[in-house]
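Please review this one:
***
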Amino acid sequence: MSETKTNTHKFGRGFRVGIAIIAVLYFVAIFAEFLAPYDYREQTRGEPLAPQSSIHFFDADGSFHARPFIFSRRLADARSMRYEENASQKFPLSFFVRSSSYNLLGLFRTDIHLFGVDAGGSETQPRIRILGTDQLGRDRFSRLLVATRFSLLVSPIGAILACIIGVVFGAISGYAARSIDGVMMTVADTVISLPTLILILAARAAFPLELPPFRAATMLITIFALTGWAEMARLARGQVVAIKQRDFIMAARAGGSTEKRILWRHVLPNIAGPLVVQATLILPAFFLAEIALSFLGVGLQEPEPSLGNMLTSAADLTQLAQQPLLLLSPAVVIFLFVFAIGLLSRQKES
């Protein structure tokens, strides 16, 4: 008994951790512009490939300051991209500073950002760079926050639509006559046998290379829904076939319930567990597929950021050797999301 309680408590804690990680990621995606100190498209030509800013509490004289600050810095050597700090000029960090304007939640126009260096009307003050800048001088941290939004929007919607199509298709197949069932499952097996990534690339080739974010999201959601439903359909059909001859189903049928009512009130609720587990496997697959497409240059296009196109900088081995943690920061977000979904899947399986 004690071992059972321990395992239940352990899985419950993992489930809560997974939910917490996903909640934080979606909070970041929703309020990305507010959390980001700068406009993700803004270029600072004087700071290409700048490293992360050093946050200080002690000034040049060794005096402690409770309020953190940064020193001004300049590009000392353009060949090696070496930056030098000027310890004589320090600039404190502030919360709720005014910077570039944006639409909060797509509704309210504002220029308030969570943190930053209060410019005070001056354009020469340094900027806080949590993850440095890219080759065009764009703030990597701001771009990373905005980049999470596209992937966290496209992959779940695509997974939900694929699951709905698959469950409906599989349930109808499980209840249909044997000849219809055979044809429907042949269609599903054909879709399963197709190489998904190649099929997605072929479908993507039918669209213009440069698409605005909304059209790119709509295209990818449609592709994912039409290519990812077959495995869910196969699972749903198998579960329906296994359960439709159970005693409680026969009793409901003898009581005068229609087949439609039996399906929705008795069959689907009893097979929901395996279907949910399958959905948690489809979601990270779609998430990684979207990132792979962006990495290959056929997903979301620059200057709009995505986790995939931000990772393309890591393909430059010279930059990767100099700034490995900065260039691979999108991989941390990818790992956290897939890890969180894995925790939820483990809880469902238990």
